[in-house]
Fold:
Amino acid sequence: MMILNNLILVGGKMKKTVVYFLLIAPSSILSACGLNNVKKLNSDATINPYRSIIIYGIRVEGRWDAPMFSVDLSEYDLKLQAITGNCFRYNHTEAMIPSVAGNIHFFAFEVQSEHFVVSPFNTVHKSFSTTAFNAPKGKAVYIGTFLYDQKRTLNLQRDFEPVASQLQSHFPKIGNTLKISETLEVTHPRGFLCTP
Structure:
């Protein structure tokens, strides 16, 4: 505390800088949910033998009132039966598309070898909520295509064959090794609250 008092007494400019830093830095960390160990990949992605790749699609058919529509997945701990995130570290995917009806948009992410669930922070009504998707080490898996339908419900289409050729052309270096992810039922995931 003595060091802080000495810094504030040095001069007006230093005083303002220190005060702003002390007020803004903690709230920035808390509001941004800190570190994320998930990496979004482009179409020339390759498989890291020590990590996993998860791929999913998003398609909008129903009316969504915001200009963008997103589906995020959160890392899930099977032992704790909860998402692994907190205010300082939160491993999750972030995928967003325009909220107009159109084609499937595919997204790929490099993740730790874990399980993932649809994020409890997604506010749309889901026809499912307790499904976890396995992301095995050194493999690329297809989660499915999330479809926001005319009834304003998010559904998951897991039929791999209709999209296999699209995935192969979109991700040529991993498309031929891609498999549908294994699933299991888990406890309904809950979010967490970060306040500055």
